[in-house]
Amino acid sequence: MMAYADWVGALQAIAWPLMVLVALAAIASSPSARASLGKLGSRITGIQFSGFQIALTPESATRANETVTDTFAKYRTTIKARFDALARRHDLDRLLERIAHDHIAPNLSEEAKQDYRATIHVADVLFEDGLYQLVDYYPGGGGRGRAFSIRIGIIGKTWRSGASQDEPNVNPGRDDLVNAWAMTEREADQLGKGRRSFLCTLLVGNDRLPVAILYVDSPAANAFNPHLAERIENACRDYGLTQELVAISREMRSIGPVLPIFDHI
């Protein structure tokens, strides 16, 4: 297993080339950029700095697209492995199971008790303005390791607003998810899945800054009893889950590049 210092060094070593690869990916994915690049080919043939050379041609843009995809996939795999190791060390699956058993399930409608799921999201450390699913869904499993933009869905609204969110009866249709929840049609098809009730409890540290979101959903409408978010927040603090998430977030922030993708207005 890679030593911690070596692992951090490996991340730092590739952090700055990633910024170059992001720019190349934008060129590769934009027809207008490629067209403009072709017109400029006779005047600009490449750039070179710090021993890193880029040939500015449509062919190099295609190769860059392949390189970017491979590089980010490997980097995401490395980050996922580190998150998984920390989740095991801090016993997050067991803590989530206890909270779900003791506090979430007893406060669901009878229909929702038959089909609900809960998980935890934290700030992503690869991309700025991203959220990362830290553990698999309880009780059904699956889902950990995925990243989402803070600009879509109820988890994004929770993180941006700095307040827990409860949506007891969301229209699962594509149009509503696109228009009301800032999803693309593709995201709506992939993420909607007929869920009607959504609850996001924002967990904060002692400094009152956001640490994580404990997410619960169900295909049943009006699934949650009143004040469930408050009960979850208190349980996470009492069971020590919030403190464990603070420790994990602090460690990951110290080594993640948190690359900005878009400009801020």
Question: How would you describe this structure to a colleague?
Answer:
This protein is of the alpha+beta class. It has two domains: 4-84, no CATH class; 91-253, Beta-Lactamase. It has ten helices and eight strands. The strands form two sheets. The protein has a six-stranded antiparallel sheet with strand order 5-4-3-8-7-6, sandwiched between helices. Helix 1 (4-29) runs antiparallel to helix 3 (58-89) and helix 4 (92-104) packs across helix 9. Residues 36-44 have low confidence and may be disordered.
Q: Please give the oligomerization state of what you see.
A: single chain
Number of domains: 2
Number of strands: 8
Helices and strands, in order, run as HHEEHHHEEEHEHHEEHH
Overall pLDDT score:
83
CATH homologous superfamily of the largest domain, by name? GAF domain
- Mind describing the biggest β-sheet? 6 strands, antiparallel
CATH structural class of the largest domain: Alpha Beta
Strand content: 15-25%
Query: Would you identify the CATH architecture of the largest domain?
Result: 2-Layer Sandwich
Q: Specify the structural class.
A: alpha+beta
Counting DSSP H or I runs of 4 or more residues, the number of helices is 10
